[in-house]
Each structure stands twice: as C-alpha cells, then as structure tokens.
C-alpha cells in the first residue's frame, strides 16, 4: 500500500496478493496448456504480453472513454478540485487527475496504474445530487482505492481473466486448424478450459471487488471523520439508480467494477456475484466505524 494517512488494511493487502497469485498461475497454466497442445508459443506470449502492457498503460484512458468523460482543470471545476486538493493534503498523497462524465447516473470511480498516474471521475448526476459533506465522503472513498493500490490490482485482475479466456478460445481455433485427426478432443479440452478459466477468474475478481469496497468505505470515513455523510451518499446513490435511463446504465457497464456504488439492482444471485457488497452491509460497516469514532450515525 502507498504510504499515506489512509489506514492500512491487511485483509485487503492479503486478498490482493492471493488473487493476483492465483490469477497469474491460472494465466500461465492456460498458456502452457496451449503451447503443449501445439499452438505457436511465441504468438501466444506476444499477444498476451502486448495486450497486458496496453491495458496497464491505457486503462485510465479506456475507462474515461467508456464513460464519455473528460478531464477538467481547476478553472473549469474549482469546487471539485478544491475538495480533492484538501483530501489529498489530509491523506498526504499525490493529487490524481480529475474528470467529469456528463451522465445522469450518480456515481464516481477511480482508475490508474499507480497513485501518480491515477484519475478520479465523477458524473454530473453525482454533483447535482450530493451536498458537500456527502461528495467529500465519496471522493475520500475513491482516493483510498488509489492509495491502497487496489485500482491497479483490479485493472490487471479483471484483464487477466478475460485475456486467459480469449487465449483459450484462440487455442481452440488454432488447434482445430492443425490437428485434424483429433479435432473433437482438442475442441472439447480447450472449450472446457475456457469455461474453467473464465469462471475461476470471475469469482476471484468479484470476491476481491466486494471486499475492497468495504476497505475503501472504512478508510474514507476515517479520513473525513464523517461516516454518516458517506452513508447518506450511499443511500442517495443506491435509491436513485432505479430511476436512471437504461441508456446511461448500458453506457456505464464497462466501469461497473470501479464504481462507488453498483449501477444495477438485482436478486440474491446477482448480489452473490456482484462487484459490490449490498448497501445494507456497507451501512452496517459504516455504523461500526461511526461507533469507533464516537460519532452517532444520523
């Protein structure tokens, strides 16, 4: 974790290490299997390495483009910049770039490969709906993601799972072209490998994503000293999602895992596999923080 005044979270650090190790092992195993099956190893490694490097260096630009967001200067958004300046000074961390997305969906996210190459993005819907204390709570939450470096881990973890599945499918078609005598066997093995790779990576990244939201809520609440403001923002955002146009929800889908609050509602199965813990559980954790700080939840 970066050396900031955000409280460290050993549980988050341990989970990030374990998830990255398991996904890396899964990723390497998938490539090794394809190479053993006769796929050109140089081509596999070249595609995998090139795609990973591109995602690592351009993940912030990809996320902003998906949200239709643009960076804003202090002159264009003085109040927003002033809040982030104050929070970064409190946290003793580098200031990230600031962006705004013109969407009704009230939300925010942070992305970037490290604290010095990060960006915090908020939507115009969020700016309109929250008061100053609530907005500060959300921004502190997003800055803690950057300080904890879980933004970078989630970027790589999400990408590795998808890429491993793509490589498995690539191997299937390559194997079909070269192994005409055992086409059915190659097809079955690679198809099953593709499913296993995707399911395991999906579950690992979802589990990490849910825990990191708890960690960011706690860290953000401790930084501002106002867990009730963060809780109020969470309630407002969660209740407003159901009234957001479908077009905005569809447009925001690529950034779902990085949002402050999920841009969708669903049943218990959806909750189990979601990128975020339930609002009720997050409010319970914030109530605990409030009790620790000796400040009642309003």
UniProtKB/TrEMBL annotation:
<dbReference type="InterPro" id="IPR036259">
    <property type="entry name" value="MFS_trans_sf"/>
</dbReference>
<protein>
    <recommendedName>
        <fullName>Protease HtpX homolog</fullName>
        <ecNumber>3.4.24.-</ecNumber>
    </recommendedName>
</protein>
<keyword id="KW-1133">Transmembrane helix</keyword>
<dbReference type="GO" id="GO:0004222">
    <property type="term" value="F:metalloendopeptidase activity"/>
</dbReference>
<dbReference type="GO" id="GO:0008270">
    <property type="term" value="F:zinc ion binding"/>
</dbReference>
<comment type="similarity">
    <text>Belongs to the peptidase M48B family.</text>
</comment>
<keyword id="KW-0472">Membrane</keyword>
<keyword id="KW-0346">Stress response</keyword>
<keyword id="KW-0645">Protease</keyword>
<feature type="transmembrane region" description="Helical">
    <location>
        <begin position="184"/>
        <end position="204"/>
    </location>
</feature>
<keyword id="KW-0482">Metalloprotease</keyword>
<dbReference type="GO" id="GO:0005886">
    <property type="term" value="C:plasma membrane"/>
</dbReference>
<feature type="domain" description="Peptidase M48">
    <location>
        <begin position="75"/>
        <end position="288"/>
    </location>
</feature>
<feature type="binding site">
    <location>
        <position position="213"/>
    </location>
    <ligand>
        <name>Zn(2+)</name>
    </ligand>
</feature>
<keyword id="KW-0479">Metal-binding</keyword>
<feature type="transmembrane region" description="Helical">
    <location>
        <begin position="12"/>
        <end position="35"/>
    </location>
</feature>
<dbReference type="GO" id="GO:0006508">
    <property type="term" value="P:proteolysis"/>
</dbReference>
<keyword id="KW-0812">Transmembrane</keyword>
<feature type="binding site">
    <location>
        <position position="141"/>
    </location>
    <ligand>
        <name>Zn(2+)</name>
    </ligand>
</feature>
<feature type="transmembrane region" description="Helical">
    <location>
        <begin position="41"/>
        <end position="58"/>
    </location>
</feature>
<dbReference type="InterPro" id="IPR022919">
    <property type="entry name" value="Pept_M48_protease_HtpX"/>
</dbReference>
<keyword id="KW-1003">Cell membrane</keyword>
<dbReference type="InterPro" id="IPR050083">
    <property type="entry name" value="HtpX_protease"/>
</dbReference>
<keyword id="KW-0862">Zinc</keyword>
<feature type="transmembrane region" description="Helical">
    <location>
        <begin position="151"/>
        <end position="172"/>
    </location>
</feature>
<keyword id="KW-0378">Hydrolase</keyword>
<feature type="binding site">
    <location>
        <position position="145"/>
    </location>
    <ligand>
        <name>Zn(2+)</name>
    </ligand>
</feature>
<dbReference type="InterPro" id="IPR001915">
    <property type="entry name" value="Peptidase_M48"/>
</dbReference>
<feature type="active site">
    <location>
        <position position="142"/>
    </location>
</feature>
<dbReference type="Pfam" id="PF01435">
    <property type="entry name" value="Peptidase_M48"/>
</dbReference>
């Amino acid at each position: 974790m970066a050396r900031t005044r955000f409280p460290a979270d050993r549980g988050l650090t341990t989970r990030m290490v374990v998830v990255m190790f398991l996904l890396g092992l899964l990723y390497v195993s998938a490539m090794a299997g394809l190479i053993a099956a006769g796929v050109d190893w140089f081509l596999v490694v070249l595609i995998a390495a090139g795609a990973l490097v591109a995602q690592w260096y351009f993940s912030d630009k990809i996320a902003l483009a998906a949200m239709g967001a643009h960076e804003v200067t202090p002159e264009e958004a003085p109040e927003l910049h002033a809040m982030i300046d104050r929070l970064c000074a409190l946290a003793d961390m580098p200031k990230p770039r600031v962006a705004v997305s013109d969407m009704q969906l009230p939300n925010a996210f942070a992305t970037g490969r490290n604290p010095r190459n990060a960006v915090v993005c908020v939507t115009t819907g969020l700016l309109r709906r929250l008061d100053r204390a609530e907005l500060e709570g959300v921004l502190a939450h997003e800055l803690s993601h950057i300080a904890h470096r879980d933004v970078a881990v989630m970027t790589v973890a999400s990408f590795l799972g998808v890429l491993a599945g793509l490589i498995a499918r690539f191997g299937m078609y390559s194997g079909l072209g070269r192994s005409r005598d055992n086409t059915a066997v190659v097809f079955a093995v690679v198809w099953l490998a593709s499913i296993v790779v995707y399911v395991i990576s999906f579950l690992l990244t979802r589990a990490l994503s849910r825990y990191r939201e708890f960690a960011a809520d706690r860290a953000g609440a401790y930084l501002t000293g106002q867990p009730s403001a963060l809780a109020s923002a969470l309630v407002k955002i969660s209740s407003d999602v159901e009234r957001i146009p479908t077009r905005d929800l569809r447009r925001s889908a690529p950034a779902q895992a990085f949002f402050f609050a999920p841009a969708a509602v669903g049943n218990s199965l959806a909750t189990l596999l979601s990128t975020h813990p339930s609002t009720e559980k997050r409010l319970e954790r914030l109530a605990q923080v409030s009790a620790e700080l000796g400040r009642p939840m309003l």
